[in-house]
Amino acid sequence: VQLQASGGGWVQAGGSLRLSCAASGRTFDTAAVGWFRQTPGKEREFVAALSRRASGGRPFYADSVKGRFTITRDNAKKAVYLQMDSLKPEDTAIYYCAAGLRTILSALTNPHSYDYWGQGTLVTVSS
């Protein structure tokens, strides 16, 4: 599976952005997919994920983005999206998409549970 993230940019606080993650590979359809973010000097932080098909394809969100971000996937297009609304300056980070072929529900928030990563896209939210 290869992943490529896009859609980052600059936005004012309160605005919206939609990140996209294009995937290749047949196993993507059944994999868990997630979005993580990272700022300088900090560890990669969980943002949102969709569980594997075998686990119901359920969405999970970090408390800090719940109610503002929405993760979706389109298997026909082999893509994952992160709709980000009501953005805050603290959302500023490099955002990464990831896919995990065997990621179980209890490990969705752990970046080490994912097998494949995109290159990252920068989101900057100004106050």
Provide a compact summary of the structure.
This protein has 127 residues and is mainly β. It is 0% helix and 48% strand. The protein has strands spanning 2-6, 9-12, 17-24, 32-38, 45-50, 59-61, 69-74, 79-84, 93-100, 116-117, 121-126.
Major sheet attributes: 7 strands, mixed
Q: Write the H/E string, N to C.
A: EEEEEEEEEEE
Which value, in Å, is the CA radius of gyration?
A: 13 Å
Oligomeric assembly = single chain
* Spatial separation of the terminal alpha carbons: 37 Å
Would you tell me the structural class of the helices and strands? mainly beta
- Percent in strands: over 45%
Helix content: under 10%
**Number of E-state strands:** 11
Blueprint of the fold:
Layout: E1 2-6, E2 9-12, E3 17-24, E4 32-38, E5 45-50, E6 59-61, E7 69-74, E8 79-84, E9 93-100, E10 116-117, E11 121-126
Structure description:
By secondary structure, this protein is mainly β. The protein contains no helices and eleven strands. It has strands at residues 2-6, 9-12, 17-24, 32-38, 45-50, 59-61, 69-74, 79-84, 93-100, 116-117, 121-126. Strands 2, 4, 5, 6, 9, 10 and 11 form a seven-stranded mixed β-sheet that branches. A four-stranded antiparallel β-sheet has the order 1-3-8-7, with no helix packed on it. A hairpin with a 6-residue loop joins strand 4 (32-38) and strand 5. 33% of the residues are buried. The mean pLDDT is 95.
Which short descriptors sum up this protein?
single chain; 127 residues; mainly beta; 4-stranded antiparallel sheet; 0% helix; globular
